[in-house]
Amino acid sequence: MEEYGFSGIVISLQFKNNIIREYITCSIDSGDGRFSSLCTIVYALNQMTSRRILWRDLLTFKYNVNGSWIIGGDFNAITSYDEKIGGVPVSDADIEDFQSFITISQLLHIRSIGCYFTWNNKQDVETRIWSRLDRCLVNEDWIHLYTTSQVEYLLPSCSDNSPALLIIEDDDDIEGKGLFKFFNMWVKHPDFISTVKSIWEQNIEGYKMYSFHSKLKKLKHALKELNKKHFMNINEQVLRSKDDLADIQRLLSEDLFNLGLIVREKECIKKYDRLLDCESSYKQKANISWSLERDKGSKFFYSIMKKKRHLNRILTLYTESGTRISDRSGIITKIVDYYKKLLGNSVSTT
């Protein structure tokens, strides 16, 4: 174990002797205690057999990780055909093998900007190869702790690979309101109609469009309260409802024509079906297709939702002249100036 410290960051490196590995892991902790994570740097070999050993080792390591973890570097593999131009075509087996590793490990790509192709062989036009070999993957704990993070792949300069700049913003410092999204599950709740009616029947003075806009704003807050009151921790509600139904059916199996148990079974089935419908609405929220039903409602599932919810945040901006802006005030000023220039200035109508 060796430790290095700089700029308030402490890095602990763990080395294993007499073993040739394609990755190295370190622990990174900030001096102010606001950041702490395991970080694994990968440099995969060219042979698929060697990479399979690497995938296996990383999976074994992942199952022993408690806390946030980021893994990045040159994986020497791609996830789709559009991640390579030139050279010998990549085989289906290579792509499927890497995709399978990412799926099984339940690691997520963090948002990336900058150079799409992170590697090239620096050769002439006829033999030039471009490929996206570098990437950063994170576990669900990273998503929950450091949602507002991204990796920027910079210009490669003299290297074959683009350097990766990891940017992590503090969620507490992010200003602005989240987008409002309507969920179909609300419509099936018995309080939905009365909630909408109570808002829509209010008398609001002013122009029709002002009245319409005001009611929509009030309805948004009312529906958020409805969601908070009845649909929070939906996965736990589904599990409890399933257990309640199983308990009733066990009792009913010993008393087949018990009227009270039959009525309670119907009520439990109705509640369980309703909660399952609500849970499936989170699929709508995540906007993702799930191949495995066991993922629905899991911690990994909610990590996907949180990751997608923050994709619209801008952490880095380049001006027309190529100047890089990363401070929040500068980004806001540049965006406002752009739209002022685009939309023009207000003029007097008198």
How does this structure look, described?
41% of the residues lie in helices and 18% in strands. With 350 residues, it is of the alpha+beta class. The protein has three domains: 2-173, Deoxyribonuclease I, Chain A; 184-308, no CATH class; 316-350, no CATH class. A seven-stranded mixed β-sheet has the order 1-2-3-4-5-11-7. It has a three-stranded antiparallel β-sheet with strand order 6-10-9, with no helix packed on it. A hairpin with a 5-residue loop joins strand 14 (317-318) and strand 15. Helix 6 (234-254) packs antiparallel against helix 7. The N and C termini lie far apart (76 Å). The relative contact order is 0.07. Mean pLDDT is 82; it is low at 1-20 and 288-297.
Short description:
The chain is an alpha+beta fold and 350 residues long. The protein has helices at 48-62, 92-105, 140-145, 192-200, 208-230, 234-254, 259-286, 299-309, 328-343; strands at 2-6, 9-14, 23-30, 36-43, 69-74, 84-85, 108-109, 111-114, 119-120, 130-131, 134-138, 149-153, 164-168, 317-318, 324-325.
Oligomeric category = single chain
Rounded to the nearest angstrom, the distance between the terminal CA atoms is: 76 Å
Low-confidence stretches are 1-20, 288-297
Shape: flat
Averaged pLDDT:
82
Helix content: 40-55%
CATH hierarchy class name of the largest domain: Alpha Beta
Give the CATH superfamily of the largest domain: Endonuclease/exonuclease/phosphatase
Structural class, from secondary structure content?
A: alpha+beta
| CATH-defined topology of the largest domain | Deoxyribonuclease I, Chain A
Question: What is the CATH architecture term of the largest domain?
Answer: 4-Layer Sandwich
Task: Count up the domains.
Answer: 3
Query: Biggest sheet, open or closed, and with what strands and sense?
Result: 7 strands, mixed
Per DSSP E runs of 2 or more residues, the count of β-strands stands at 15
Rounded to an integer, what's the Rg over CA atoms?
26 Å
Spatial order of the strands forming the largest sheet: 1-2-3-4-5-11-7
- Please provide the ordered H/E string of secondary-structure elements: EEEEHEEHEEEEEHEEHHHHHEEH
